[in-house]
Amino acid sequence: MNKGEISPKNEVQHDGQTLEINVGPQHPSTHGVFRMNMVLDGETVVSLKPVMGYLHRNHEQIAENMSYAASMPYTDRLDYFNSMSNNFGWSLAVEKLAAIEVPERAQYIRVIMAELTRIVNHVSVIGFLLNDLGAFFTPVLYAFREREKILDLFEEVSGARMMCNYFRFGGIKYDVPQSVLERIREIVDKFPKFLDEFETLLTKNEILCMRCQNVGVLPAELAVNASITGPMLRASGVNYDIRKVDKYSIYDRFNFKVPLGKKGDVYDRYYVRVLEIRESLKILDQALKEIKPGEIMNKKMVPFLKSPRNFKPPVGEAYGRVEAPKGELGFYVVSDGTPQPWRYHVRAPSFINLTILEDLCLGHKLADAIVILGSVDIVLGEVDH
Amino acid sequence: MKTEEIKALIEKALPGVKLKLVRESLLVENAADLPRVAKCLKEDPALKFDYLSSVTGADYLTYLESVYHLYSMEKKAGSIVLRARTDRANPRLPSLVPIYRGAEYQEREAYDLYGIVYENHPDMRRIFMWDSFEGWPMRKDYEQEDSETLEAADVEWLEKRGVKVSDADRAKAEELRKTGKRAVAQKPTGSPEA
Amino acid sequence: MFYGYGILQGMWVTLKQFFASYFKKRGQDGALFTVEYPEQRLPEKERFRNFPFLIYDKEPENLRCVACDICAKECPPKCIYIVREFDKDGKPLKRPAIFDIDFTVCMNCGICEEACPFEAIYMDHEFEIASAERNDDLLYHKDDLLKSNAYFHKIRPNDATAVDAKLKEAEDKKKAAEAAAKAKAEAAAKAPPPPPPAAPGTTPPPQPPKPAV
After folding, report:
1. Residues 253..292 of A with a Cβ closer than 8 Å to B: which?
2. CA–CA dist C192, A339 (Å, integer)
3. What is the C-alpha to C-alpha distance for residues A273 and C21, in angstroms, rounded to an integer?
4. B101–A355: do the CB atoms touch at under 8 Å?
5. CA A282, CA C155: separation in Å to the nearest integer?
6. Residues A286, A254: contact at Cβ < 8 Å?
7. What DSSP line would sit under C1-69, residue for residue?
8. Most B CBs within 10 Å: which of A252, A334, A352, as the mutation test of the B interface?
9. How far apart are CA A225 and CA A6, in angstroms?
């Protein structure tokens, strides 16, 4: 494995004929419409080139013709599993641009929603990884049973299960009644028991260990150089979590650890995600204890709820980033004083985490390549924006 | 460190490099200096900006721009923003892929959407659109073609493969060919009442 | 332990779940959680938003919409199409003649509901509206979209009560302002004509208002 210098013409020495195949775009294991041009020697991967763009909707150009608040429902559809995190990123970017403050209670609710989203994502990703390994749908449905409870909660709070459109610039749209907070408290109290059962099912399973350990090892220097972020980076041992580095929103008030892996293989990426769920439960516990009644919207931004087309931020630019469950989700926005942004760019973590897919898969078998793709954790809405 | 201090540091380490402070970001006036500036930022022991977070293209009507956001993972330090400008007729910028591997896909995206060609990129081709697509979709003067109207080239392609094209479509395509225009989609206007 | 113990542990978990699914009741750990739609349904949540609908107060002729076109301007995918109604003299009326929403384009974001200043358009709970044809069945016109205020109370009681209270308050304020203006006009008609203006130097300077105690 190369250690941080690039050599894009990686080739594994082989003798004999090679077979060039297409994995995807219609494939049950590529997590969406994603194609990989693989060249195989027998079953071993000789070269792998990802081809994307089947879900490209030119979201950035759509946003150039709309007001800032009208882009919020479109950000839901970027990483369609974690719509609350995408909303968080976009509202953070615009609040930085226009220097808008967010009241306390809204900050707490934002953190609660973001951490619930993180739990939902990690537990589903573990399920999908097991799907790729061949455990047909049992872990997925165990995970989805818990995800359903959280999605029902999102529906009660924001109106939709997945495309929430809940955050606004300067606060959130609806307040969360006390009964819903009680339900979140119930979910947080019951989740560790489910997670223990899930781990009993998976963590020490010999088949999982044999297939995932020492497969797709990512060295730390290559990860940093290739702009990898999220659980994939932390599984390689690099301690970089944007919640701890930028301390955006009110994350500096909570006490939580950042789990790190040692080797950077697929098993470490799976286990880092399990540990991150436990840390998210800790954050939720603390947030539910500290939340107090209050306002949910910045007073100056309330008129713009009724007329989003009149919101004109000052001329300038801003880059707001959040620790989305898949990595660093950043929004770069340039404003020229009109109600429409001049330039709007999404820094999608799944897109950039695919940079080293070829490096990880070389020399492994085809079945391992599918498992490595599952551990990179991509969602095509984000890869193609 | 503040942007002005970083600017002073780079100007001391690399004499001859011209930088300008634009709205809290550093504009590298001569685009060919960009790899040297990036390498200096990455290797300087006080800065150690080893993480390239985002590469963005932007269109400012008279020039095209490429914006880079750099962070330091080792020192957990904040961002520095670099800019490089190029003209619209023949946009070429040096690539940062030899220094930061993470720029690979993002520079391909900027090429696909804006037409900025990055020299020394290992794989400079389109990433989202198909390879034979013509045009740079995100530029401000891009006109989307109308997918319903047939042009003369489309009529030819269809007839060669045995598809029957109606006379009305053929007449319209001929008209378009005579005026030399392309079939351009109309932007949605919403309600007629303003 | 011995090789293969992890697999056996996992199988024990699934075996426990298998037997528990026969004996546990819904809501407990390990019970079946399937809701057999369409015979059984989950209770509707009040805030659930699906497609929009227009509200009328007493009869479909008194719809609240005044064709101001704000929802059409704010709609992100531009699925609303409004044409104002004109009376026979050519004067514009405060009603829409055409109000079309294309449900194949609408993305259920709810921004039209937020932006409407006249409380005329709200998000419905109807989701069983699949159609057999591709193009025309899902283009809803004004008559298909009109639903009564009583229906609004049925599906979203809290929001409907809040909206009614707000409208009543606005109505009361308007009536009070009208009554005050009318009383002022009558008092002005009954009062004697004002005295001729005094010569300069004789009128006392205006006194500052006394502070409230």
Report:
1. none
2. 56
3. 29
4. yes
5. 37
6. yes
7. --TTHHHHHHHHHHHHHHHHHHHSPTTSTT------TTTS-PPPPTT---SEEEEESSSTTSBS-----
8. A352
9. 9
ipTM comes to 0.89
Shortest CA distance from B189: residue in chain C:
C78
Nearest to B100 by CA among A1, A4, A9: A4
Residue type, B149: T
**C145 and chain B: CB distance < 8 Å anywhere?**
no
* Residues of chain B positioned with their CB less than 8 A from the CB of C78: 188, 190
Structure confidence by residue, pLDDT tens digits, C88-139: 888 888 889 999 999 989 999 999 999 999 989 999 998 888 888 887 788 8
Positive/negative CA dihedral, C117, C123, C124, C125: negative
Contact C47 A155 (CB under 8 A): yes
Mean pLDDT of all residues in chain B?
Answer: 85
Q: Is C112 on the interface with B (CB under 8 A)?
A: no
C-alpha to C-alpha distance for C60 and C148, rounded to whole angstroms = 8
Q: Which domains, ranges and CATH numbers included, belong to chain B?
A: 3-119 (3.30.460.80), 143-185 (no CATH)
Q: Which residues of chain A have a CB within 8 Å of the CB of C6?
A: 203-206, 208-209
Check if the beta carbon of residue A54 is closer than 8 Å to that of residue A36.
no
Mean per-residue pLDDT over chain C, rounded: 84
Q: Environment class of residue A250 by beta-carbon count within 10 Å: exposed (0-12), middle (13-18) or buried (19+)? A: middle
Give backbone dihedrals phi and psi of B5, rounded to 5 degrees, phi first: -65, -40
Q: Tell me the pLDDT band of C201, cut-offs 50, 70 and 90.
A: low
Instruction: Report d(CA A270, CA A129) in Å as an integer.
Output: 8
C143-185 tens-digit pLDDT: 888 988 899 999 999 888 999 999 999 989 999 999 988 888 8
Residue A90 pLDDT > 90: yes
CA contacts within 13 A on the Cβ side of C48: 15
Q: Tell me if C72 and B192 make a contact (CB, 8 A cut-off).
A: no
Rounded to whole angstroms, the Cα distance separating A33 from A380 reads 7
Q: What is the pLDDT of residue B53?
A: 92
Sheet holding C121-123, edge to edge: C121-123, C52-56, C146-148
Pairing of strands B117-119, B92-94: parallel
Q: CA-nearest residue of chain B to A350?
A: B105
Q: Output the pTM of the full model.
A: 0.89
